[in-house]
Amino acid sequence: MGKYAAGKYAYAISDRSGLRFPYNEMVREWNGSLVHTSEYEAKQPQLEPKPVGSDSQALYNPRPQPASKTSLILLSNNPFESVIYSGTTYVNVFSLDHQRSAGDIVRFRGPPVVTTAGAGGADEADQRNLQAFINIPTFDNVSDLNNANGFTIALGKIDAAGTVTGATTTDSLTTPINYVYITSTSTATTGGIFGGGDNTSAGPVTLEVVNG
After folding, report:
1. Interior CA angle at 95 toward 91 and 99, to 5°?
2. Residues 6 or more apart from 176 whose CB is under 8 A from it?
């Protein structure tokens, strides 16, 4: 079979411009047109768009963060104040930026102590059972702060005239909200007395053990 001539003296007519060019300077475009190298146009990339897959929906083998557990909030020294208004005893509680809501149920606890040091078995639960909370001491005849069922709180700070301030961040008393108050079943003697001692805390009625 014969071979093609080199064409070094040949000419060709461009399919685009109709002009004559040296044969060896001609190229063929993607659509089959024979054109001179100076007229060559590459195929428009938008004629062959790359397929776009769907967005990923989830990670493989995810390990989401577990929901946080409600925990104790340590209160400052003597955070409780007795208030007598219209024959009812209230207790103001100072808890810095507590972020609680009106109607939340909060239980107050005294300082934690080890009740039976060195006792208990090797089991981890036995060791945890050695821990307890001592009672909050009575002050101004208010003795019910250790109620195991907790108290339903109201936001703000109440005074002897029944006026509540600091219940919102727009109040002049505090920003953010730092006070809650409860209704006591005790009968305060004087009112306006602070108590509770050191290392008292506010938290849920039932505590959950956090491993780790």
Report:
1. 115
2. 97, 99, 169
Better-predicted residue by pLDDT, 161 or 64: 161
Mean pLDDT of 144-173: 88
CA distance 182 to 160: 14
Query: How does residue 144 score in pLDDT terms, banded at 50, 70 and 90?
Result: very high
Instruction: Give the whole-angstrom CA distance, residue 105 versus residue 56.
Output: 42
The sign of the dihedral angle between the CA atoms of 106, 109, 112, 118 is: negative
Q: Facing residues of 25 across strands?
A: none
Buried b / exposed e across 149-161, counting CB within 10 Å, b at 16+?
Answer: ebbebbbbbbbee
Residue 45 DSSP SS3: helix
Provide the 3-class DSSP secondary structure of residue 112: strand
pTM above 0.70, yes or no: no
Q: Omega before 79 cis (within 30°)?
A: no
pLDDT in tens, 88-137: 999 999 999 888 999 999 999 999 887 665 555 555 555 555 578 999 99
N residues, the chain: 212
